[in-house]
Amino acid sequence: MKKIKIWDSPTRLFHWALVINIIAAWYTIENRLIELHEIAGHTLIALLVFRVCWGFVGSTTARFSHFITHPISALQYLVKSLKLKVHHKIGHNPAGGWMIVIMMLVIGFQLISGLLANNDLGFSGALSDYVSKATSDRLTQLHGLNFDLLVAIIWVHLVAVFFYVLVKRDNLVKAMITGFKILERQPAFRLRFASMYLAVSVFLLSAGLSAYLYYP
Question: Which terms are listed as keywords in the entry (predicted)?
């Protein structure tokens, strides 16, 4: 049995920062803290832009090319996984990879619609002036509906994680905290980990874009 590093620090920090900021976005809107809600939203923009970029230039297990497979392959993996006939240990599995993509797309729409939304009480998103009031109103409605969809996806994600932890005895949560897994042998392919300097540079650019939208 070998202790193998699977996840890099930037990917793990992104994951938990995303969790915190989604909760913050929900809490602030539920309590009518609209200015703090906007800050949470712009923080999520920086995080999402970073993750998209990291999906192309980051470490092996963070790259889209590593975990995005053909949809049919993902479905086949899902069926076999439910029957406990397959065990995937390195990075996102084929079904989980598509869950990540779908979640990122839903979060992306949530952020874009938020930038174009308004609440008819003096607040408007950073880009709402670029669309008509009717369009902004419609996107405001979709912003709320899309969040319900996001919550549903998060619940599916949590169910899948606990299925792996409790049934398949594969502690995905611990791996995303520590970055390591205990494996029977070395991976068949070489895992490459990108530089932390690259990660910081990518995040600063992402944060700069978010700040530019926040302070137009």
Answer: Cell membrane, Membrane, Transmembrane, Transmembrane helix
Contact (CB, 8 A) for 15 and 185: no
Q: Which residue has the higher pLDDT, 85 or 63?
A: 63
Q: Cβ distance 184 to 2 under 8 Å?
A: yes
Chain centroid to CA 126: 22
Question: Which residues span the domain enclosing 33?
Answer: 2-214
Between the alpha carbon of residue 51 and those of residues 15, 64, 107, 145, the distances in Å are 9, 10, 12, 24
Domains of the chain: total: 1
Q: Rounded to an integer, what distance in angstroms lies between the CA atom of residue 166 and that of residue 152?
A: 21
The band of 216, judged by pLDDT with boundaries at 50, 70 and 90, is low
Domain of 151, CATH number, reads: 1.20.950.20
